[in-house]
Amino acid sequence: MAERKMCSRRDAERYISAGDVYVNGEQIQQDWIKIPRDSCVEFSGKAVKAEKQKVSVILNKPLGYVSSQPEPMRKPAIELLSIQNAFQLTARWYGKEPKSLSKLAVCGRLDINSTGLLLFTQDGVLAKQILDPNGGVEKEYLVRVDMDLERDTKQAEEVVDKLREGFIWNDICYRARSVRVLNANQLQFILTEGKKRHIRYMCEAVGIKVIALKRVRIGNIRLGALPVGNFQKSFANLVLVYDVSL
Question: Which UniProt keywords apply (predicted)?
Answer without folding.
Answer: Isomerase, RNA-binding
